[in-house]
Amino acid sequence: MGKIFKERTAVETARKLFLEQIVPLKLTEMVRLEASVDRVLARAVYAERNVPHYRRSAMDGYALRASNTQGASPANPILLELSDKVQEGSCVWVHTGAPVPAEANAVLMLEDTQKVGALIEVRAQVHPNRNIGAVGEDIKIGDLIFEKGHQIRPCDASVLASLGFEKIEVFQKPLVAVIPTGDELLNRKKIQEIPPPGRVLETNGLMASLYVEKWGGISRSSEIVPDNQQQLKEAVKANLDADMILISGGTSVGKRDHAPEVLENLGKILVRGIGAVPGKPTTLGLINKVPIVCLPGYPVAGLVALYFFVRAGLWKLAGKEKKLRLENSKPSLKRLLSAKVSSRIGYVSFVRVVLEGEYARPLMGGGAGVLSSVAKADGFLLVPENVEGYEAGAEVEIFLLE
Q1: Which of the two residues, 180 and 330, has the higher pLDDT score?
Q2: CATH assignment, 28-50+140-171
Q3: How far apart are CA 42 and CA 20, in angstroms?
Q4: Domain ranges of the chain
Q5: Which of 65, 96, 122, 321 has the most Cβ atoms closer than 10 angstroms to its Cβ?
Q6: How far apart are CA 124 and CA 114, in angstroms?
Q7: 331-400 homologous superfamily
Q8: CA 88 to CA 103: how far, in whole Å?
Q9: Average pLDDT over residues 277-292
Q10: Superfamily holding 56-133
Q11: How far does Cα 317 stand from its chain's mean position?
Q12: Separation CA 140–CA 47 (nearest Å)
């Protein structure tokens, strides 16, 4: 295929084309509750016991017969004997969560009593079952607790623990192979001194791998591949056991950019160039049903592609359909721009900002190759492709950087 970008695909169109080709993983594994947060249930979970499994007190106070409190008030208290057994005219001390004696049908709050020697002065009337948690009041045997596909939160793990579960069956995490490519790259683990002019430490692969781990995948990084089409092809073939492959670099239109040709040779290209600034050279495709994302070599452009495509692709692979549905309603902030922001018609612009009180200050001079502009940023705003920009003072939606 030719090197020139013959056309660019709108970001949302590209996302749709890409996600349509991704099939969620089916392999499952058992994990302990301690390691279950953010994992996706592979089957529905039903209660195998009642919660609570005994009648328990909902308050600190006295277990008694409700009929023994009839007519009681601060002005007309009733005296009951404090005992170790509930019977007519007596009561038993219970604390919150303690079993309620079978003979009692109510618990009187401590605040509504006064101790007078060996007697308890009852200052309020209670009705049967008052302040008592019945067996199965929270959860009953056979209740559906979570449906298949539910993503576990810490509070969910606590509920499962209360039902006696130690492990749950979840879908396996997606394995993502990260392949950095470029003659200019040096392995940061092997180079201690400052690189010579024209050479740089490889860091985009690190960023991609860490985001993969953060978004619920397992990353596997390969050695740096030089700008050689055959060597890149062999590296990709060696990683086709992964659930997704990220090629970092080599995706633009230069003589040394071989990623799109390798993708086209081994599989098919879905998108060659997107309507985003930065991020235009992003290429998406498929090889043997394995989704491929060719990330631009410029760091910020690569980050844009990670946010737009890799995150959503990972979520779909992992069965996190709810996250995909909620992605457009992810937490954001409304702020006023402290300076004008310009944008190119036909491109979604990814603008980094710093939050300063009620204002968002755009980071100027932060091109696609200036990764420090992201490190300095609190978040970003997306200027739609049909908008030329925003004036200072305009209220915009800011998405926080993860």
Answers
A1: 180
A2: 3.90.105.10
A3: 21
A4: 11-26+173-324, 28-50+140-171, 56-133, 331-400
A5: 122
A6: 11
A7: MoeA, C-terminal, domain IV (2.40.340.10)
A8: 10
A9: 93
A10: Molybdopterin biosynthesis moea protein, domain 3. (2.170.190.11)
A11: 14
A12: 7
CA-CA distance, 183 to 195, in Å (whole number)? 13
Copy the structure tokens of residue 146: 């979570």
How far is residue 77's CA from residue 62's CA, in Å, rounded to a whole number?
15
DSSP-assigned letters across all residues of 5-26: ----B-HHHHHHHHHHT-----
The amino acid sitting at 320 is K
In whole angstroms, what is the distance from residue 318 CA to residue 42 CA?
10
d(CA 221, CA 247): 10
The values of phi and psi at residue 193, to 5°, are -85, 170
Residue 370: what pLDDT? 55
Over residues 113-169, the pLDDT tens digits come to 999 988 999 999 999 999 999 999 889 999 999 999 999 999 999 999 999 999 999
- Strand boundaries in 43-89, DSSP class E: 45-46, 56-57, 61-64, 78-82
Choosing among 3.40.30.10, 3.40.50.300, 3.40.980.10, 3.30.70.260, the CATH entry for 11-26+173-324 is: 3.40.980.10
Element holding 259 (H helix, E strand): helix 259-266
Token digits of residue 159: 């509920």
For the chain, the average pLDDT equals 90
Q: What is the model's pTM?
A: 0.79
pLDDT digits (tens, 9 = 90+) for 38-90: 999 999 999 999 989 999 999 999 999 999 999 999 999 999 999 999 999 99
Does residue 333 sit in helix, strand or coil? strand
Tell me the longest C-alpha to C-alpha distance in the chain: 96
CA distance 26 to 88: 62
Q: Which helix (H) or strand (E) holds 231?
A: helix 229-238
Q: Length of the chain in residues, anyone? A: 402
